[in-house]
Specification:
Elements: H1 2-56, E1 76-82, H2 92-109, E2 113-119, H3 121-130, E3 134-138, H4 147-162, E4 168-174, E5 184-190, H5 210-284
Parallel strand pairs: 1-2, 1-4, 2-3
Antiparallel strand pairs: 4-5
Helix pairs in contact: 1-5, 4-5
Length: about 290
C-alpha cells in the first residue's frame, strides 16, 4: 500500500513538472518567433554597412580616423562575452563560455594581455567561480536588445581602442542559423579590416564631406556589429531554451508512462493479495 502511495506521489510531481516545462516551451517558441524576426530585419542593414566600411577601408586614413588604426604588435586586448541571464537553455551558455575560454587561452599564449568583459549572469557567475578578474559586468541587457544596449557595452572599448589603450577587441556570441543550429562564434571588432567588396568607392557621391561621413560611419559600424550579435544571441537563447524544454517535456512524459505502469502493477498486486486474503478467510470458516 505504501509503495502505491509513493508512486502516486511521484506521478503528481512529474506531471506538475511536465506542465511547467510545456509552458516554458510555449513561451520560448513565442519569443523565438519575434527574436528571429528581429534577426532577419537587422541582417540587411548590417551587411550593407559592413560592405560600405570594407570598401572605404584604407590604412592611409588611420592618422585621421583612430578606429582604422592597425597596431604593429598586439599587446593589449579585450573580449566582450555575451551570455544569458537565465539558464534552462541546454548547452547554450556552456558553449559560449567554452568559446571565450579558448579565445582567452589563444591570445594569452601569444603574449597578449587580455581583459574580459561579460554580459549575462551565467557568464559572470562561471568566470567568478574560475577566479577570472572581470573588467566589467553587465546584467541589464534585455531579451529585446536595442542599439543603445550595444552602445553601452562596446562604446567604452571602442573609445579606448581609438585612444591606443587597446590593440584588439573581440566579441563572443552565438550565430543564429536556425532554431536547431546556434553555434558560438568569435568576431574581431577592432581593428576594422578591409576586404573584398562589390562596391566601387570612386562611384560614391559624398554629401557632406567624406571625412565627416567616415567619422560618423565607423563608430556606427562597430555599434551595429555588437547590436547584431546581441539580436542573434537573443534568438539563439530562445531556440536553445525551446529545444531544452521540449526534451524535458518529452522525458517527463516517458517517465509518467513508466510510473503509471509501475503503479498499475503495484495496484494489481495489492488487489490480488486482498482477494487471496478474503478467499483464505472464507475457507477458514468452512
Amino acid at each position: 500500500m505504501s509503495q502505491s502511495r509513493e508512486v502516486k506521489r511521484r506521478i503528481r510531481s512529474v506531471d506538475n513538472t511536465r506542465q511547467i516545462t510545456r509552458t516554458m516551451e510555449m513561451v520560448a517558441t513565442s519569443k523565438l518567433k519575434r527574436a528571429s524576426d528581429r534577426v532577419q530585419a537587422a541582417r540587411p542593414y548590417g551587411d550593407a554597412l559592413e560592405e560600405i566600411v570594407r570598401s572605404l577601408h584604407d590604412p592611409a586614413l588611420a592618422d585621421r580616423f583612430p578606429l582604422l588604426r592597425v597596431p604593429g604588435t598586439v599587446e593589449r586586448g579585450a573580449i566582450l562575452l555575451l551570455t544569458a541571464n537565465r539558464g534552462l537553455a541546454g548547452a547554450f551558455n556552456v558553449n559560449l563560455i567554452r568559446q571565450a575560454n579558448r579565445l582567452l587561452e589563444e591570445l594569452r599564449s601569444e603574449g597578449v594581455e587580455v581583459e574580459l568583459h561579460v554580459a549575462g549572469k551565467k557568464g559572470i557567475g562561471v568566470f567568478r567561480y574560475q577566479g577570472e578578474e572581470l573588467a566589467s559586468e553587465h546584467t541589464d541587457v534585455p531579451d529585446t536588445p536595442t542599439p543603445e544596449d550595444a552602445e553601452r557595452l562596446v562604446g567604452p572599448l571602442r573609445d579606448r581602442f581609438g585612444a591606443g589603450e587597446l590593440d584588439v577587441v573581440y566579441v563572443v556570441g552565438s550565430e543564429f542559423r536556425s532554431a536547431l543550429s546556434t553555434p558560438p562564434m568569435s568576431r574581431k571588432l577592432l581593428p576594422i579590416e578591409g576586404g573584398a567588396s562589390d562596391l566601387d568607392p570612386e562611384s560614391f557621391i559624398l554629401e557632406p564631406s567624406g571625412d565627416r561621413i567616415i567619422r560618423r560611419l565607423l563608430p556606427l559600424y562597430v555599434r551595429n556589429a555588437v547590436y547584431r550579435m546581441l539580436v542573434e544571441n537573443a534568438a539563439a537563447e530562445q531556440g536553445a531554451r525551446r529545444i531544452a524544454m521540449k526534451n524535458a517535456t518529452d522525458n517527463a512524459g516517458e517517465m509518467l508512462d513508466d510510473l503509471k505502469r509501475t503503479y498499475n502493477r503495484a495496484r494489481q498486486a495489492q488487489i490480488t493479495q486482498e482477494i487471496a486474503e478474503i478467499v483464505g478467510g472464507a475457507a477458514a470458516f468452512e
